Amino acid sequence: MKLIIGNKNYSSWSLRPWLAARACGAHFEEIRIPLHTPTTRERILKHSPSGKVPCLIDHGSTVWDSLAICEYLAEKYPQLWPTDPSARAVARSVSAEMHSGFQDLRQNMPMNIRKDYTGKGHTPGVDANIARIEAIWSDCRERFGKKAGAAGPYLFGAFSAADAMFAPVCFRFKTYGIQPQGAAGEYLATMLAHPLMQEWAAAAGAETESIAAEDLYG
Ligand SMILES: N[C@@H](CCC(=O)N[C@@H](CS)C(=O)NCC(=O)O)C(=O)O
Fold it and tell me: Which residue's alpha carbon is nearest to atom 16 within ligand 1?
């Protein structure tokens, strides 16, 4: 498999399938295409019909869009979704909610792993998004993650695609100094300590490109 991704510092959508694929032990070649350069679009279009990353290529099958890639991976690695049908339904719901919503947060607190933007980016809409994310995390941890037999520190116990979908928000919370309390705060700390999250963050730190349009607060 080949996974086409953008800059690790900025490309929140790319992080999700990269993390899901690595977490389930899939082997893939990583093709990194820096965003916002004169040749970016042309280079992405060689792989991805949408002109966007991420994109997965597997034996002639092309899958684009982060959630579609997670679903594709889950067909090969079913452990990416919880086995219990009601937990799986909620995992899919919160993943889809993350995928299609939270516009205020996306616009005002873009992922930018190298920066410390503590205190920046707040608006009433952003704060409402943050409150909803914290509620999702607490609810999933309390109802599913801590259930007997579902042992594990992630949203549904064991690491799942839902955790991959929320991974960019975890980096955003770190950059913008958001510190949830209780179960949501514990979950955030768990995610930020995940070895693959640390590997991604280290690679983001080593990147040399800056995208002025993404460095919103200096
Ligand atoms: N909904 C898509 C969004 C993908 C997306 O917007 N990707 C951005 C980078 S994070 C992109 O490729 N932009 C193209 C460009 O900047 O030229 C997904 O989930 O994969």
Answer: 35
Domains, the chain, in order of start with CATH, read 2-77 (3.40.30.10), 81-202 (1.20.1050.10)
Rounded to the nearest whole angstrom, what is the distance from the C-alpha of residue 22 to the centroid of ligand 1? 20
Q: Is the peptide bond before 54 cis (omega within 30 degrees of 0)?
A: yes
| 54 CA → ligand 1 middle, Å | 7
| pLDDT tens-digit readout, 7-65 | 999 999 999 999 999 999 999 999 999 999 999 999 999 999 999 999 999 998 999 99
Which residue's structure tokens are 């007997």?
148
Kindly give the distance from the C-alpha atom of residue 8 to the centroid of ligand 1, in angstroms, as a whole number: 13
CA distances from 182 to 96, 115, 127, 186 (A): 24, 25, 18, 6
